[in-house]
Amino acid sequence: MQSKAVVCKNLRKDFGKGEDAVKVLRGVDFQVNYGEMTFLVGPSGCGKTTLLSVVAGLLNPTAGDLAVLDADIAKLHSSEAVLFRRKNLGFVFQQFNLLPALTAAENAAVPLLAAGWSRKPAVEKAVVLLRDLGLGERAHAKPNQLSGGQQQRVAFARALIHEPRLLVCDEPTSALDAETGHHVMELLRKSAVRADRAVLVVTHDSRIYNFADRIAYMNDGLITRIEEQQNAA
Amino acid sequence: MNFVAWQMLTGDRAKYLGLIFAIAFSTFLMSHQVSIFCGLMNRTRSQITDVRDASVWVMDAKTQYLDEVKALTDQDLFRVRGVKGVEWAVPLFKGTSRAKGADGKFRGVILMGLDDSTLVGAPRKVILGSWAELRGPETIAIDQTGYKFFFPDQPLELGRQLDLNDHQVRIVAIVDSEAPFVNLPVFYTRYTQAITFVGRERNQMSFVLVKPQAGLSDGEITKRITAATGLKASTSLDFGWETIWYYIKNTGIPINFGITVAIALIVGTVVAGQTFYLFTVENLKQFGALKAIGVTNGRIVGMILMQAVIVGAVGYALGITMTALFFDLTQNNLDLRGFRLLPEIMMGTAAAVFLIVLMASIVSVRRVIVLEPAVVFRG
Ligand SMILES: Nc1ncnc2c1ncn2[C@@H]1O[C@H](COP(=O)(O)OP(=O)(O)OP(=O)(O)O)[C@@H](O)[C@H]1O
Ligand SMILES: [Mg+2]
After folding, report:
1. What is the number of domains present in chain B?
2. Chain B positions in Cβ-Cβ contact with residue A85 (cut-off 8 Å)
3. N vs C: which end of chain A shows fewer Cβ within 10 Å?
4. Whether residue B275 is found in the same domain as residue B339
5. How high does pLDDT run on average in chain A?
6. Rounded to whole angstroms, how far apart are CA atoms B150 and B142?
7. Residue B97 placed within a domain
8. Are residues B172 and B30 in the same domain?
9. What is the ipTM of this complex?
10. Rounded to whole angstroms, how far apart are CA atoms A97 and B287?
């Protein structure tokens, strides 16, 4: 049996110290499988984004065990963590966070540029990927000339271009209307889910739950229930 | 990632231009003011620089600078002539007088009296006429600016008359001399004539100009003259610098210019720093996203420094071009003659701009380095 992409055991995260510490993750036990799309859902403020940030190596856990792609990322030096993220992780943000001064293709090419690719081949590869995502025509448009759904697709391209083994998405549809959100999730499922890749999506948009292979319900800093869905859309 | 940095910078047209303008403005102000200051200070030694035939100046032992002298005696002149190694030594008169034009306009003038037989101390460039004509009675040579003051809008012409301290004098040469510090006309005449023109004081010898014998250095002859006569002897260069330093130490001029330059530096740093910082802060989310995606701190710092260097280089180029253009366009303006942009000033301004840009970017760099990449997930 293949190993897990993410394994958390009794994971804790406090913000602040001593009396005033805010205990946000209070002992999370959680796993993410390769080849699946896992949703992390729950009420606002329950700690979803915090858990995602810890899993992505952007925040250090306070206590507990964490293995991401078999690496003990909490122990990595911050400069090693950057390289780990660059190589292995793809990010999709709620607010897209595209660079307004760059074209769609240039934005999508950023992870390759960060890895030392030169501009031309990186942008060429990005154009191909954007075409797969239905944005071939708009590859050279600036973000402010694109609709929200189109911008999120550019963000997908940026998250996938370097073929990461773990893709993390925080509320990828909450800045979009229902129909666009649905469409974008379809596309994400189609383009991102692979046997050797795990996809972790944080959302509280119940209308897209049908895209998940597995849903982890979170409440007040703990995973309360995990649900498997056999025929995800 | 360099092109990403470039696009980010120029993508925000308004801030980019604002930054460039701030730096161009300080560059212009600094280089322009320092050039004028240097030009002005250089003018304090104009009458020294104008003397090309002799390289050593002898004066009263207590003399501090060019414009305040105690007269020497004929005895002093003979003693200088007697110093071993002196090829020749001639008197030079430097004083002020008052001249009146045909229309009654009068003005203080600088009057230079040159040794009667050799005319040592005459500036090299004659525009009209000749030095030989000075041998006639009641004759003067006048500098171009002086001519234009007494005969505005009139062609350069010899033979015109002026009233110099109640003596009718005739212009026999129009010459080009270095601009004096106080912007007065400069008259040249023979030494004995100068003395009759100013009258009164028995003794009028301001300086003795000396040329050392071939093979003897200026430094050596000054030592010998001082030892033998007790008078002060300086090379033109040393005496020029003494005069410049006298004005620097004893007038408010350096402070005035210093204040302008300091303001240019401060305003440049504050405006450029502020704009640059704002630019970084506005892009903080983008930088956060880049950090999350896996762009290293070093790379991001490199991007910010590159942006700063571009802004600094473009702003500097613009500002220094403006200064160069200013001096180029005004080079025929007689009031501004001798003022120019020296390479040293260009380099000094470049260093100041580098400092401005460095200070402006340090704050931004700090802000980005401490930025937690996790902020990208916060709304
Ligand atoms: N840097 C921080 N310092 C202090 N408290 C924090 C910090 N980050 C998050 N928190 C707190 O942790 C709790 C969980 O935040 P988190 O963003 O993980 O919730 P969430 O489940 O993603 O909520 P939402 O659905 O609204 O995005 C909140 O109470 C929040 O105020
Ligand atoms: Mg959240």
Report:
1. 2
2. 292-294
3. N
4. yes
5. 92
6. 10
7. yes
8. no
9. 0.90
10. 10
